[in-house]
Amino acid sequence: MPEFVPIHLLYLAIAIALEVVANVLMKLSHGFERKGPAVAAIACALAAFTALSYAIEGIQLSVAYGVWGGVGLMATAVLGMVMFGERLRGSGWLGLGLIMLGVMLMKFA
Q1: In percent, how much of the chain has pLDDT > 70?
Q2: Phi and psi for 29 in degrees, rounded to 5?
Q3: Distances, alpha carbon 66 to alpha carbons 12, 35, 100, in Å
Q4: Can you tell me the distance from the alpha carbon of 15 to that of 104, in angstroms, rounded to the nearest whole number?
Q5: CA–CA gap between residue 70 and residue 82 (Å, rounded)
Q6: 3-state SS, residue 107
Q7: pLDDT for residue 74 is more than 70
Q8: Looking at beta carbons, which pairs linking 20-26 to residues 24 or more positions away fall under 8 Å?
Q9: DSSP letters of 87-103?
Q10: What does the radius of gyration of the chain's CA atoms come to, in whole angstroms?
Q11: pLDDT of residue 34 exceeding 90
Q12: Which of 25, 27, 55, 92 could connect to 12 by a Cys-Cys bridge, CB 3.0–4.6 Å?
């Protein structure tokens, strides 16, 4: 693995943000019936994978992908609650907590 360069963390943060935006746009597309949000969701998802590919040049794949997926899932869940009034039961909160723990443990991988 090459020496750590902070730009790779920026690429990872961009990948996470784009993934979350893509997920919200998918919801707004109503099952891809609304073409504008659907096309934007696909573009954001492709851009997220592109940013992730740059991130893994300097961050281990297992760490980058785990953080990308875990943080993206947590942010998407929070936005679902804020923007769409979605709610989680206790088991959902437990699951989010376990994901957060897993992401923190990946730092030591």
Answers
A1: 95
A2: -80, -10
A3: 11, 31, 10
A4: 18
A5: 19
A6: coil
A7: yes
A8: 20/72, 20/75, 20/76, 20/79, 22/48, 23/72, 23/76, 23/79, 24/76, 24/79, 24/83
A9: ---HHHHHHHHHHHHHH
A10: 15
A11: yes
A12: 55
Would you state the structure tokens that stand for residue 101, as one six-digit string? 């723990």
pTM of the model as a whole: 0.88
CB environment 10-40: b (16+ within 10 A), e (fewer): ebbebbbbbbbbbbbbbbebeeeeeeebbeb
pLDDT at 102: 86
Structure-token pair, residue 24: 């919200």
3-class SS of residue 6: coil
CA distance 48 to 60: 17
Residue 7 CA: distances (Å) to CA of 22, 54, 65, 76, 87:
22, 9, 16, 24, 35
- Cβ–Cβ < 8 Å for 14, 72: no
Q: Which residue in this structure is represented by tokens 């989010």?
A: 96
